Amino acid sequence: MPGKKLFSLKKRLISIMLICWILPLLLNTAIISFIVVHNIDLQTIQAASGTTFSSARVCTTRINAAASASRLATYYETIAKAYRSYKSDYLGFRQSVRTFLEQSYRFDEKFKTTSLYFYGEQPLEDDFYIFNESLSQDKTLGEAYDLYKKTDLDKIVSHARNLDTKIGFQNSEDRIYMYRNLFLSTPSAASSPDAILIMQLNTSLWFDSMKNTPWGRHTCLLLDNQPIKSEEIDFDALYVLERFKAENGQSYGSIKAEGQNFLVGEIEEADYTFAYVVQVDNSVLMESVGDLQYGIFIISLLVIPFLIFALSFFTKSISHPVKKLVEGSDKIKNGEFGLALEDKFQSVEFKNLADSFNAMSAQLRNQFDKIYREELDLRDAKIMALQSQINPHFLGNTLEIINWEARLGDSARVSRMLEALSVMLGAAMDRKSQPLVPLSEEMMYVDAYLYIIGERFGPRLSVKKELDQSLLGLTVPRLILQPIIENAVEHGVSSRSHGEIIIRAYRRDALLLLEIENSGALSDSDKKRIDDIISSEADISGEGSLRLGIKNTSERLKIIYGAKAGLSIEPASPEATLSRLIIPIEYIKNKL
Q: How many CB atoms lie within 10 A of CB 476?
């Protein structure tokens, strides 16, 4: 606004920084403290995860020891030998089997009970149920046997039939069984098993290392994805385990699922997979950061007004002026030269910048107008200069032919040649100052030239025309085809006993294509030289008039129609050369 005092943006920025320095410092301190505490908690969880995995290793070591103990029934052939004599010596069979089980497993603290179940006939199966009485605390032998016989045996037998020689596990309430098939009649595992060795595990010995997990609230153990529940849990352990395996490529670690933190690990052994899922007590974790989070919250509330003030200041004093300058720059880029910014900026720096911007814009406008006028003058002068250079060589050849014909006294032919020459001279002189003519008129000049040159070569030259009649009304540069046809005649006819010229005019998409095809191969060296001549950077000093005409034709097309137009000369076949002029039709229509 007029009369309003401007202020220094630099001084205002310094004031804002001084006012807001203490609070951002406190805020950064609080955030850093939070990150430190969070990292400590994370490291604690990682340490607890490693300790828990080590405890799980102890469990698998004990499971492997039990599995090795169960293989004694296979390594020693006592049961197999007794089984093969079962029908002939039943009492001996029973005594041998029972004695082996008692000696091998009765006093092994890894097992509560050991039993042998025979598929098919069951010869006094209760005699093959061995109870470790030293571990009996809450159930008598009869109660344990009843649970095994009535509740657990059928499930175990059902699962074991397809187990082959592997070890299987069965969880039934608080009883965990390990079992394996025995092949007694034949040593080959390809035959059907004869019996099952079933062992109830002493879980207090096996899994006591997992009881005191650091920060653990609830623990669930899994054998072959079967939960072993020593306590009530309120989460889906199998879901947590599968999600951890899907998201992590490690054997153990931590994961957040169902709103809780868990320590998870899995150990794959040859005969089984042991896993654990431990629910972490989040309340223990949160106690260490609760006070810090409360302090950060208070600081955040206090800093909000300062942030609002700073945001408003920067929006009005910096963002808005910069936006206006950017918008002005975009408009100048799009061609609005001379644009002036009318906004009244409040800072000295932006006011000076806007004044400089307006001065630059005005200067650009003046320079553009000047350059534009110079370009128009240069374009007209260059076109006229190029047109004036077209055919001195051709006119010399024509006069020589007329002189030769006059000597022979053939006045009729001389008359026709003079008429054709008159047409060519009128086109070259351009008395009406029309640099663009209809294609039909351009073809009239081409016909005049071909008549004259035909008198020179006679039957050695044949000409074909393939013209789209609908294109004859389109305008093209005057005498744009003559230099190319002259080059085609010299290249394809003058040194040959017979040559052919084909002239085409057709449309392809938004382009008008004018083609002159002549007999005569185009060598690689000629092709390279022509490309160099057509190139705007090429030096054509010392070149003949024909090649000068080629370069002039290319330059005329680009000056008049821009970069999309041009001239190319390529091999049409091993024995022919094709010259193509490309003119954008859309631009031609605007000229009509």
A: 27
Helix then strand count (H, E) for the chain reads 20, 17
Per-residue model confidence (pLDDT) at position 23: 59
Cα(108)–Cα(244) distance, integer angstroms = 36
Cβ proximity of 59 and 207 under 8 Å: yes
Cα–Cα dist 144/112, whole Å: 10
d(CA 451, CA 419): 10
Question: What domains can be seen in the chain, in order of their start residue?
Answer: 48-283 (3.30.450.220), 292-380 (no CATH), 389-591 (3.30.565.10)
CA distance 292 to 40: 14
Q: Write down the pLDDT at residue 468.
A: 92
As a 3-state breakdown, the chain gives helix, strand, coil percent values, each rounded to 5, of 55, 20, 25
**Average pLDDT, 10 consecutive residues per value, the chain (592 residues):** 53 59 60 59 71 83 83 78 77 84 83 84 62 62 78 85 83 83 69 83 75 72 76 76 83 80 85 84 59 62 67 68 74 72 70 76 74 60 51 56 60 66 65 79 89 85 92 90 88 82 93 92 85 69 64 85 88 90 79 44
Please tell me the predicted confidence (pLDDT) of residue 535: 76
What is the rounded distance in angstroms from the CA atom of residue 173 to the CA atom of residue 550? 99
Q: How many C-alpha atoms does 2 have within 13 Å on its Cβ side?
A: 0
| pLDDT for residue 301 | 65
Strand order in the sheet with 195-201: 129-131, 111-118, 195-201, 175-182, 167-172
Q: What is the 3-state secondary structure (H, E, C) of 533-557?
A: HHCCCCCCCCCCHHHHHHHHHHHHH
- CA atoms 322, 323, 324, 329: torsion sign: positive
CA distance 496 to 510: 37
**Residue whose C-alpha is closest to residue 588's, from 557, 551, 561, 569:** 561
